Structure formats: structure tokens, C-alpha cells
Amino acid sequence: MYGKAFAPEYQGALTTLSVNASLVDVLAAGTEELRAAERAGRHAEAARSGLAVAEAHRRLGQVREADRAWKASYRAARAAGDTAAMAWALWSGGTLARQRGALALARRLLALAAELGERGGDVVVRGYSLAGLAETGRIQGDYEAVGRLHEQLLAEARRRGEARHTVWALEGIAQMHRNSGAYDTAYALFEEAAEIAARADDRRGHAWALRGLADIVSVRDGDTERALALLSEAEETCRAMNLVSALAYNLKMRGNVLYRAGRYAQARGLYERALAGFRGMDEPRGEALARLGLVKSRARLGRDRAETAAELAELARVLERIGLRHAREMVARAEQELGVAAETAR
């Protein structure tokens, strides 16, 4: 049985904040508490409130501010001798590094966060940090290496009745099945995630689950209108909570759904909007995926084949540099689909 979802990254004086609080409100409250703690010389409270500030900035796509905030949180935690708070700051920094495409740095920070979490006796930050490592491997396409870790973390979250972490694990496992072509299994897992998130009032987790369901409904069933309806429902949450990154991924998925339906001009417009969003928050993975959709849409609308081939080749180099193997395979499939593979090879 799962309880109501909570946000363990909202700590100290901010524990009363809802998991569904608007990120603008979280940032305002966190900044106020942080300044008060700094004025009073309360390092431990500065570390805890600074964590919420860092996470709000990150999720709002304000990466420079997020980078400064997690580092300041870590320094305050170290000054207070609070090992668990140090782990939470490193978790935030590792998550930001993954968002920015610095995957090697993400792995280092998250591994250290997991170690400090265990040393500090905080099982939640240890679990979140291991989950971050698993997600980093997953987005790189290293499913064999991280599949077992996802399953382990899911089992731990279920035992503790921790709804938010259970939803995350289910969605990660579902995404791996979806990318491997096991659509029925992926759908069932996304559906369970959506149900748990809804009962636990985890609106962010619910929005991501709806996005996953929409993808399956589109690619497996060809049901464009139902997929778009699911994405519209998810979009309401993204806007209400100011989930900038999630909204950009929602727009990209809308583009995918419309592209599959042969509505290329509409898809192009959505990919352009998603691309602008990802660029605004310095999220290279999302930017590359939106560019891929945009290239494919423009090709379908009559773009010059040589230009298409050149951009796909450049995209492949970008994805190789980031280390996203699954996404690199998507580029190869696009080359085959558009009939430019031979030109790219020349």
C-alpha cells in the first residue's frame, strides 16, 4: 500500500511544501529560508533550503543558477558536518550534470552521493542517487547494465511503500521495454505507474506516465487522437507546476505522434517549439532528439536530400559525443527511413 507522495528534496523548514507545489513558489520559499539561514549562520539549514533552491532552478531550466545553488548547498553541508545533506547536494549536482549531457560527471557525482548517503544513514538519498545512476545508464542505452538496478530499486521502493520512487522505477523499466519493442509490457508498466501516481497525488510522476502511455498508444495502436488527449492532460500538469523540461519533452512527443500520423507540417512546428525550449535550458539530449524529429519532418516536406544527410551525420556526431547509444541508433534508422544512408556514408 502506498502513502501520499512526498518530496524528500524539500527539507528543513521546507518539509511542508507539497510535491505538487509550483516550482516558482518553491524557489521563492527556498530563497527566503536560505537567506534567513545564512544571516543566522545556520549552515545545516542553509544546506537543506539551498537544496530546494537548486532543484527548483534545475527543473525550471535555469542551469547556471542551479549549478551555483547545489555547490553552495554542498559547502554549507560540509561546514555543518552533515554527511546526508552533502549527499543530497551531490545528488542534485549529478542530476543537473545528466540534464546538461555531462554523463561522466553525472556518474561520478551520483556515485559519491550514494556512498555518502549510506555513510550518513539516509536510505532515501542513497536510493535516489542509485536511481540517478540507473537513469544515466538507461538514457545511454546500456540496458543490460542498469536493468537489474532498476528492478532492485523498484523492489526497495515497493517494500517501503514509497510511491514517488516506485513510479520513477516503473517508468524507467517501461521505457527500456518500449525502446526494445516490447510495447505491451511497456504499456502495462506505464499504466501501473500512472495509477500509483494518481492515487498518491504525484502529479509530476503522473504526467510522465501519461507521456509514456501516449507514446505506446501512438506507435503500437496508431491511435493519434487518444495519444494527443493523453499528452494534453499531461501538459496541464506541466504548466501548472512550471515543469519546463517536462513540457518540452511533451511537445517533442506531440511531434512524434503527429509525425507517425503523416501530419508533417504540424509535427515540424512542435519540434521547433520543443527545440527552442531545450536550447533555453541547455539540455543537449532533448535538443538532439527534437532536432532529429525536425530533420525528419523537413525531409518529408521536401527538403534537399543532401542537406538532410549532412544534418543527420552531424547529429550522429553530437550523440556520439554525449554518449547516447540508443539515440544514435535512432539516427541510423532515420537515415534508412529517409533513404539517405548511402549519402551519409560517403
UniProtKB/TrEMBL annotation:
InterPro entries listed in its UniProt record: TPR-like_helical_dom_sf
Alphabetized Pfam families for the sequence: TPR_12 (PF13424)
Superkingdom, taxonomy of origin: Bacteria
Coiled coil: none
PANTHER family given in the database record: HTH-TYPE TRANSCRIPTIONAL REGULATOR RV0890C-RELATED, REGULATOR-RELATED
Name of this protein: Tetratricopeptide repeat protein
Organism: Streptomyces griseosporeus
